[in-house]
Every structure is written in structure tokens, then in C-alpha cells.
Design brief:
Strand order of the largest sheet of chain A: 3-2-4-1-5-6-7
Radius of gyration of chain A: 21 Å
Largest interface: A-B, 91 and 91 residues
CATH architecture of the largest domain in chain A: 3-Layer(aba) Sandwich
CATH superfamily of the largest domain in chain A: P-loop containing nucleotide triphosphate hydrolases
Number of domains of chain A: 2
Order of helices and strands of chain A: HHHEHEEHEHEHEHEHHHH
Shape of chain A: globular
Number of strands of chain A: 7
CATH topology of the largest domain in chain A: Rossmann fold
Strand content of chain A: 5-15%
Oligomer: homodimer
Chain lengths: 318, 318
């Protein structure tokens, strides 16, 4: 780089979008220089409020995020948006690339939108997410909306680093819905039934309510809320914002704040460690070329997979 | 353990279910003794045919898998089933725990069913999956059905280690379906439109077909097939099996076989390395207790997240 990390951090803290974009790209590309800048930014973070928006494809997360941006901007808040896109293993391109609706905010300097694709088999959805959140936080974003697809482990991690987690669902997804609900009930602070004009919305609401009542009490004492929306017509979104603010006040309690911080930092530390180590493994193997060579050795039968893995590890670790 | 790895491997190769179950549990618990047994099993693997069954919750994957088991058993094939369940971060229990329909096969000694839950933030869906597949392979299973939820990176990895990848969908999931399709088109060998009695099945079929025509040609030359099923009534499943067999014959080509093996082993090697390293990180930090101590240090402000992460790494690596 040749750039002073202190200088770079200063520009980001002052809200320089180009400096922030450059850093985020380099975080994504695992460039070694970024950690010095992240260290400089660290004392300037911890102020942004992160709202997770999770749900299956097709439930209307992007539309909801779009309307939320509009409402928060009306309150003069600075907004960051991080969209985590699953990536195609063949092309390396993002699946949910263009988000046409959200693009209308791209000319608003108070809104910073960033898509994170996960690439290749060394990736993981949560890879650089927390670092990107730290950068937006340091830039002075008041609210960061974190949009993710699915119900895998990566989404669970994302839910754990968000201050408020919204699970977005739609009526009419079939009979297995009971099974889904049983799992996500524990990770959602707010349940959004979007496209609530559809048949089955009331039944869905009753079912979630029933399962919440039957389920174990949450450790933190919060009672999850259910909100029905029709985001495309802006219906119910103001109510949703009120519920988000209610949860935010709840989280302000010092004891709860500490609990949350411990949980979130734990995940962030582990994620960062895994990420750093992954980079070092790739260095040790010799990236693509070395990886192909190792695989060819295994195919030829000269060594088995497990012994090869051990060999690489022993070279890497004390 | 006190058990000879060679002895243990021998019992598994002879089909001893208790020996295999014990090993799988210990793989899941990351017990160190397992790698010696896996090394012994390795030369006895590479024969099983792995079929990936991926799709959102609610599309009827389990029902489909259940009917597939029935058909393959009718052909006197030995079957393994691996179900990957996303886990609740609070209770550690599997979300989609009981699969009532599939349980009717549990008394059939030709069917071995194993649920893999992902636990805690150090996990990853693909964690021990490939090792479990190796064990079933060594046991002599002819076909292994690998069921996963979602469209995240972990599922993409799973798709890459399956010989044939089925993507299961249902009609009527809303307007974002275009976006989903654009991504999964590249990873599916077979597209199953389940619950095809629903409105919109024909339209869905036409849309997928159109996108397949518009999309880039696949590197391996396979033209993905579309099959409509109503698994709960066994409709279309025989046709599905025929398409699976067609894809299997296609994959038999020596050049393609080699390409596939290179791709799959690459992922398996990396997954195994990451898994081993994760275990060592936890050892180095001092597991739960040490992790809490590290987080408290960060919260107190004595050290920032990134410097702490560096400190741990330097202790661990040469």
C-alpha cells in the first residue's frame, strides 16, 4: 500500500467513502495491510446499531430493507446496508447481484450499501462480515442493516452479531413450516410476516404465537414480537420500526448490554481467527497451484487425504 | 480409546453398524483418535455414489428422500442417508430433528441414516460431512443421499462433493424466484419441481427451461434436467430415478470422472484442514474458559480484537 494506516483510518472516520470502499474491498480480498487499519479504527467503533434481516429467498427482504432505509433516513439517521449473497461456485458471481429497488438510495450520501459475496470453498458467509460492520461503524453509521439468506450456521452467526434480529417469513410455504419455526423461534427477536395479504397470514401468526408460548423462556427475558407487513405497499413497516425501537430500548439495560457484547465479541474473535488462519493455510499450501498438486498426489494414491492434511498442518504449526 | 485403529476399521469395512456409529459420533465430537481409523478406511472408499438433495425448508426433501430409499432398496442397493440440520445456537439441538416418515426405514439393516447437527460458532455445515460420507462409503453403501437445507456456501460445498446434485423447489414461492433460479441453475444437475399439483408448476418449468437456455453452457457439458414430482403420492419419482441414472452414466466418462474427483478432493482436503485447525485454535485459546477470558480482556479495553487475534495466532503458528 505505502499508505499510513493511521492516515487511512482517519479518512474513514471522517466519512471518506472512497477510503472506506477501498478498505472494504481489500478486507474482502484478505489483503494483509487491512489489519493495521482495523486496529486504528477499533477504538472508534461500538456505536452503530446492527439490525439483522434474515429469511428464505423470495420472502421480500430487499423490499423491506428498502422501506426501512426510507423511514430511518426520514429520522436523519446515517444508514449502512450489508447484503450477504451466496455465490455461485462456478462463476464466482453473486446470485442475488442486482437489487434494483435499493439502488434508488445509491445517490444518497447518507446511505452506504455493500454487497458481500462469498467466494470459493475457503469462504464462509460470515468471513469478513464483522470487519465490514466495524468499518461502517467507524464511518459513523447510526444503523446498519444486515441482510442474509437462509437458515444455515452462517446466518445463525449473523443473528448473534446483530443487536436486533428480524426473521422474515411469508404465508403459504407448505407443511414443513412447523419444523422451520421450531428452530428460528429461538434466534429471532422480531418475526415479520411479510406479504401478509396472502392467504394464511392469520393462521401463521397464531401458530408462531402458540409456539412462542410453548417454547422455553429466552435467557435474556425478551418476548419476541410478531409484525405483519406488506412491504411493497409500505403497510406495517412503521409498526415494525416501533417494535425495533422497543427492542433497542430493552437492549440498553447495562447488564443485557454486557451479555450481548460478550456473545458478539466471542463470535467476532473466532471468525477473525478462522479467517486469518485460512489465509495462512492457503499460503502454506501454495494457493491454487499447490492445492492442485496436493490433490493430484492424493488421486495418484501416493498419500491418503488424511495424511496429506496432517503433513500440511505440521508444516504450518508449532 | 485403547482400540487398534486397524481393528476398528476392519469392523466398519465388514459393515459393523455399532463400530461405524461410534466412529461417526467421535468424528462429530472431533476426537483425535478418529484420524488413524479414517486413514485405514481411506483405501476402501471411492465406490459409493453420492446424491445431493438441496432445497429451502418446506419443499418436501425428506419425503422425496424417503421414496428414493424405497426405490433403491427395491433394486437391492445398500443406502446411506446423511441429513444436515441447522442447529439452534441456544439449545444446540437440531432444528429439523425428527423425520417421522424416514423412520420407517430404521429397522431395515440396508439403510443407515445419520443426522448431522452443526454446533456452536466454530462449526460449519460441511464440517465433518465428508468424513461421515467416507465411513458410509467404507461400510459398502452403494448410494448415499445427502440432504441439506438452503442456498448458503455450505450447501454449495455439499453440491460439489455430490456426484449428482438435485435442487428441489416448489411452485408459488413469490417473485424473487427469478433471483434464486439464476444462482442455483449453475449448481444443479437435476431440478425437481415437487408438489407439482400446485398452481404455477408449468410456469415454473417453463421459466427454468428458459433460464437454462439463456445461461452459459456448463463446463462439463451436462444439460440439467427438470423433473416434476408429487413425492407424497410417489408421482414422478421413478422418472426422477431414471434421470439420476442418466446423469450417473454421463459421469462415468473417465475424463469427467477425473475432473469431478479433483474438484471434490480439493474441497474435502480444505474442509479437513479447516476442521483440524479449528480444533487446535480451541486448544490454544483454552476452550470456553480461555475464550471468555480473551473476550473480557477486549471488553475491558486492555487490547483490541485484532491485536488479541494476532497474539493467539502467533502462539499457535510458526
Amino acid at each position: 500500500m505505502g499508505v499510513n494506516p493511521k492516515e487511512w483510518a482517519k479518512r474513514i472516520i471522517e466519512g471518506d467513502i472512497r477510503a472506506a470502499s477501498r478498505l472494504m474491498r481489500d478486507i474482502d480480498d484478505r489483503m494483509p495491510w487491512v489489519s493495521e487499519v482495523l486496529k486504528e479504527l477499533y477504538p472508534h467503533t461500538g456505536r452503530a446499531y446492527v439490525i439483522g434481516v434474515t429469511g428464505s429467498p423470495g420472502v421480500g427482504k430487499s423490499t423491506l430493507v428498502d422501506v426501512l432505509i426510507e423511514i430511518f433516513r426520514g429520522k436523519k439517521l446515517e444508514i449502512g446496508v450489508v447484503v450477504i449473497d451466496p455465490t455461485s461456485p462456478f462463476t464466482g458471481g453473486a446470485i442475488l447481484g442486482d437489487r434494483i429497488r435499493m439502488q434508488r438510495h445509491s445517490t444518497d450520501s447518507g446511505v452506504f450499501i455493500r454487497s458481500l459475496a462469498t467466494r470459493g470453498s475457503m469462504g464462509g458467509l460470515s468471513r469478513s462480515t464483522s470487519d465490514i460492520l466495524r468499518v461502517m461503524d467507524a464511518m459513523g453509521k447510526d444503523i446498519i442493516l444486515l441482510e442474509t439468506v437462509g437458515v444455515g450456521q452462517d446466518e445463525v452467526d449473523v443473528v448473534n452479531i446483530a443487536h436486533t434480529s428480524m426473521i422474515v417469513m411469508i404465508p403459504g410455504l407448505g407443511d414443513d413450516i412447523q419444523a422451520i419455526k421450531a428452530g428460528i423461534l429461538e434466534i429471532g427477536d422480531i418475526f415479520v410476516i411479510n406479504k401478509c395479504e396472502r392467504e394464511g397470514a392469520e393462521r401463521m401468526e397464531r401458530e408462531i404465537m402458540m409456539m412462542l408460548e410453548l417454547g422455553a423462556r429466552r435467557e435474556d427475558g425478551w418476548t419476541p414480537k410478531i409484525v405483519k407487513t406488506e412491504a411493497i405497499k409500505r403497510k406495517g413497516v412503521k409498526e415494525l420500526v416501533e417494535v425495533i425501537e422497543e427492542h433497542r430500548s430493552f437492549q440498553e439495560d447495562p447488564e443485557r448490554k454486557k451479555m450481548f457484547l460478550q456473545k458478539a465479541l466471542r463470535i467476532e474473535l473466532i471468525t477473525h481467527l478462522k479467517d486469518q488462519i485460512t489465509t495462512r493455510i492457503l499460503d502454506a499450501i501454495g494457493h491454487e497451484e499447490g492445492l492442485s498438486r496436493a490433490v493430484d498426489e492424493i488421486i495418484s494414491g501416493r498419500i491418503d487425504l488424511y495424511s496429506k492434511s496432517e503433513e500440511i498442518l505440521n508444516r504450518l504449526m508449532c
